[in-house]
Design brief:
mainly beta; 18-stranded mixed beta sheet
């Protein structure tokens, strides 16, 4: 490996300051208002100067209205005593940054680097980064190496280096189609980023299908709007292990308008029941992977481990601690056909362990068994040695959520197994009108513990959606509670099982809690119990939010409803008690189909009795029988 001599790389060809200042061709520029005296640069008001090569001075002064820039095709970054600083976006929603007016003293270095223009959808972002790596190693001409302090830096490895930024939109490390290892880096970024769909302003970004980026023993901390900790994009393989990533919200520009248009999005869409303006990580593009092993990843709000757009994405957390330090936020997000796996990890989240946004997302929560981790080591090219695999402890997954366990915002599959424990203040599963395939296997100790006593809550989607305002999709919608009874859809069969229903299967588990289908439009709740016991109410229901109107100021009311059990209209409740299963009915329940295996049972709590009516006629509950129609189970 070739060691980089940073000082010689940085200052080569800059023996004098005056020789590298070139005035721009502008009417207001004069040779007397910009001065270069000894080791100082002064830029006058309303003057633009172009700096053509990297320069070190002891003082830089820029008057109000004055600007200092690099030539076309290059970027200009300022470091003072090794800290990138001074740079701010020129406008809200824009991409360009400029060094701000003021006086900068100390070891002042102005680095002229080759441009790193990254296009995302309709915008091109002029990236600047402390360290740029490609297939050949560190690219000195694209790096701001004065921002990389201490440690050892080679073309394949950075060890014990420190990167600090207080300017906007400065990346720590950017790897483009290269193989690189960051070992025990410390990266601290303060100030806003601009776009976490591109990684503009991220601490660490891996981009391109040939990228293999390993981050080991890192301490990454950010504070700022979309100042993301880790990005994996466009087919990159990013492995973060033994590391800590903590990201805190920043202050949005005063004139920022919340939008779902991703090139301009700088805050979470409140329609998810969340607030905040920074995600700790983001996984984007096509066939990208991100794996977090034995690491701590926290956002303040919004989200910790995010997936956005793209296809073939794989997000994995193994033996990690993930969550939110604020009141609202998610652990993981699953959209498109993403695969999300959480093994042996602890989630302490504000709002949801996972938001499943569909349409074909697959999510697994389980134990970090040796076989499971070894298989992922191969599938995801994690590069874990035999010694690392052997040393990895086997753990179960525990979720502690301040609101819901999981929220279905789109279709998807969710599987819980092993010793997974889900503790939530509200419903374990919140299904907002989506097709679901939920599977819970309790044979190895999995448990569901909703504090409000609701295991599954189905409701209509209460997202009002964005609103087209002058051609832009803005987050200004308002949810209004529907009034009156829903109209009966005569073409929808509430007794049948449809591929579009909200389905859940529970195997070898003891459940205590209620299951409610509060849909107004045609969608059944289909519950299958295998060798399981369940105690609670299972019913069609009429739901009602606590408030009749919800907007951005009351985002936290989304998903929170009360239930009034009633006969199904377009919201069937289909229950299948398969072999070895027992349902203890704790209160009046309205079903549309009930199937009892030969050894299944329906009973009442001790000292009470349960009765069944089918279309108003009292009917005996007999094992081995299927009942359909308007079913009412009453406990007396």
């Amino acid at each position: 490996m070739t060691l980089l001599t940073r000082r010689s790389v940085l200052i080569a060809g800059t023996a004098t300051v005056g020789a590298v200042l070139i005035p721009a061709a502008s009417a207001s520029a004069t040779a007397t208002t910009t001065r270069t005296t000894g080791k100082q640069i002064t830029v006058g008001a309303d003057e633009t100067y172009t700096l053509s090569t990297t320069t070190r001075v002891s003082r830089l002064t820029i008057a109000e209205g004055g600007t200092i820039v690099a030539p076309d095709g290059y970027s200009l970054s300022l470091t003072v005593d090794g800290v990138e600083t001074g740079q701010l976006l020129t406008e809200t929603g824009g991409t360009a940054t400029l060094i701000q007016a003021g006086t900068y003293r100390g070891d002042v270095v102005l680095t002229v680097a080759e441009a790193n223009a990254v296009t995302y959808e309709t915008l091109t972002f002029p990236f600047r980064q402390a360290l740029y790596v490609d297939a050949d190693g560190v690219v000195r001409d694209k790096s701001v190496l004065t921002a990389v302090l201490g440690g050892k830096l080679t073309d394949t490895l950075a060890r014990n280096v420190s990167i600090t930024s207080t300017g906007e939109c400065f990346d720590g490390v950017y790897v483009q189609d290269g193989t690189y290892t960051l070992e025990k880096p410390t990266i601290s970024l303060t100030g806003n980023g601009r776009c976490d769909f591109a990684g503009y302003g991220a601490a660490v970004a891996g981009d391109g299908s040939a990228t293999k980026l390993v981050v080991d023993g890192a301490r990454i901390g950010t504070k700022g709007v979309v100042r993301t900790g880790v990005i994996s994009n466009d087919g990159a393989t990013v492995v973060v292990k033994n590391s800590t990533v903590r990201c805190r919200n920043g202050v949005l520009p005063a004139d920022y308008q919340a939008t779902v248009e991703t090139p301009y999005m700088e805050s979470v869409p409140w329609m998810l029941g969340l607030d905040g303006n920074v995600r700790a990580t983001n996984l984007i593009g096509k066939n990208s992977t991100a794996t977090y092993l034995n690491s701590t990843v926290f956002s303040e709000t919004w989200g910790a481990l995010s997936v956005e757009g793209g296809s073939g994405l794989k997000l994995t957390a193994i033996n990690s601690h993930v969550g939110n330090t604020g009141e609202y936020g998610y652990g993981t997000y699953a959209i498109g056909d993403a695969t999300v796996r959480v093994l042996g990890s602890r989630f302490d989240v504000g709002s949801y362990a996972t938001i499943i946004a569909g349409p074909a997302a697959v999510v697994h929560y389980g134990d970090s068994t040796r076989d499971a981790v070894a298989a992922l080591n191969t599938e995801l090219s994690l590069g874990l040695s035999a010694a690392e695999l052997k040393a990895l402890p086997v753990r179960n997954t525990v979720v502690n959520s301040g609101h819901f366990g999981y929220m279905f915002f789109g279709a998807g599959q969710l599987t819980l197994y092993g010793g997974t424990v889900i503790n939530s203040e509200r419903a374990t599963f919140l299904n907002k009108g989506q097709q679901t395939t939920i599977s819970v296997d309790g044979s190895q100790g999995a448990r569901l513990n909703p504090r409000d006593g609701v295991i599954l809550q189905m409701i209509e989607l209460d997202d009002p959606g964005p609103v087209n305002v002058d051609g832009k999709m803005m987050n200004v919608g308002v949810y209004t509670e529907p009034t009156g009874d829903p109209a009966k859809d005569t073409g929808f069969d509430v007794t049948a099982v449809h591929t579009t229903d909200g389905a859940a299967t529970f195997t070898s588990i003891a459940l205590k809690g209620d299951f409610y289908n509060g849909m107004r439009k045609g969608k059944n709740m289909v519950l299958t119990f295998e060798d399981s016991t369940v105690e609670g109410v299972i019913s069609a229901t009429r739901t009602k939010h606590r408030v009749s109107s919800i907007d951005a100021s009351t985002f936290y009311e989304l998903g929170i409803v009360t239930n009034t059990v009633q006969a199904a209209v377009n919201n069937g409740a289909v229950v299948r008690l398969n072999s070895g299963s027992t349902w203890t009915v704790s209160g009046t329940s309205y079903l549309t189909s009930l199937t009892l295996a030969a050894d299944a049972a329906v009973k009442a709590p001790r000292g009470k009795t349960v009765t069944l009516t089918v279309d108003g006629t009292a009917t005996a509950l007999t094992p081995g029988t299927t009942y359909t129609g308007a079913l009412t189970l009453t406990v007396a």
